[in-house]
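Hi V.,

You were right to ask for the full record rather than a summary. Here it is.
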Amino acid sequence: MASRLFSVFLALIPLSAAASALQEEPADTLSRPVMNYDVTMHVWGSTGQLAPYYIMSNRHGRFTQGDGIMLDLKAERELKTEHRFEYGFGIEALAGWQSKVDYIRYDASSGELALHGANPAPLWLQQLWAGVKYRGVFLTAGMHENKRSIFNSRIGSGDLTLSANSRPIPRLSAGFIDFQDIPFTKGWLQIEGEISWGKMTDGKWLENHYNYYNSFITTGSWMHYSRCYLRTNPEKPFSVTVGMQQATQFGGTTTWYRDGEQTGSSKNSPRFKDFINALFPWVGGTSASSGDKAYYDGNHLGSWDLRLRYRLPSGHELTAYMQSPWEDGSGIGKLNGFDGVWGLEYRAPDSHAVLSGFVAEYLDFTNQSGPMHWAPGDFPGTGIPSQATGADDYYNNFMYNGWANYGLAIGSPFLKSPIYNTDGYMRFTDNRIRGFHLGAEGWLHSSLEWRAMFSFRTSWGTPLLPALKRTSDTSMLLEARWHVPAMTGLCLGGTVAWDAGRLLGNNFGAMLSISYSGIL
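Predicted structure:
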């Protein structure tokens, strides 16, 4: 099913490009700013070693530690849609200091476990990218923050497959710049999609946070991401968007440890066909850890996505949406019960209304296609030929640290990210989670905007490592931003956030920001 879906997507690219060629080129009378720039200073502190959940989450991995001061410099020329040909580029650098967090590491020389302080580098490139667009098709290369989700990343909990949570990954991407009319449907059906391959760059981070005592560490892996969405005419009061996202980790070097001793290592240098297999998976991988190779090579995951939007005559919009995660064929076949994100969203016709947007989400990841996984191919000579495809273990894999980058989930942060594992276990320890999320935003004044979020979740551990006792967490955020009327481009921001519970730990934090943006 997934392969057929993306085959349709590939086939429609030239058709849609040809259809857009028949459209009249708009007059080139609009001004084209050379570049937008933004200079921001952040200062924050908290009572915990790590930043509170809502200060850390869905901010592209900028703020992770409990305390810090950061200068954020960004210059960008976005890819516009008004003209037939466009180019864009961007660079963003972060500089400053963040406090250390103590992680457990095994000292082979002494044979003991000891604490090891770790924090981000004082300077790193957050974004560096360039791209071109011709008609409805784009091509970009580099580290570019994901802003293309069909779900609300500002007040929602986060996209299940590719969210705004972790640092951007260097990728080569191609696809539709926006939804494009499918030929011969007269605008009643549109398509949007993207295909990309990238290289994970968090190897040093993993090596600096891993405990070197148990489990494994995988560095140098590659990733693939693709999606395809179909949408009915958005100009009509009722519109439907449906499609799938697919992601894969492959290649890299995996090293296993037990009780502080290295027990094995496997280096998988990807070949050209591995990049193709990441898009169209085939049984029979190239990794050395499987006896009969009766499996799909790499860590495959994704989601089925659905949005139902209704616009009232007054302009108010109501949206019901669903994301259903999958880790293998059982999830693609929706054998994982009620697992997923089930949400309602409201948007006001006035984007500067006191309440301009609101979301309410119920999240459940406790089914996971059943309680156990059994593949006869993993146990040569077994007398049990039947197969059980449960225990999906979302975001985890037997050869990869999980769907995370620099310790933060690439998908939804609602499943506790590995950065919280101060015992140095670099995998997801809490993915059997159930809870809800609320988010709202608006404007109290023409120059004062606000945002608030609240979530509660309960965890039962993972299917393969269930928790002896369930743990819970409550998180909240209140945020305000004042756009100074006397100086266009100047903005002052304040945020308070706190966590309560044993899942993430009790933590209170605050952040102050001052930014200035303009056009070069």
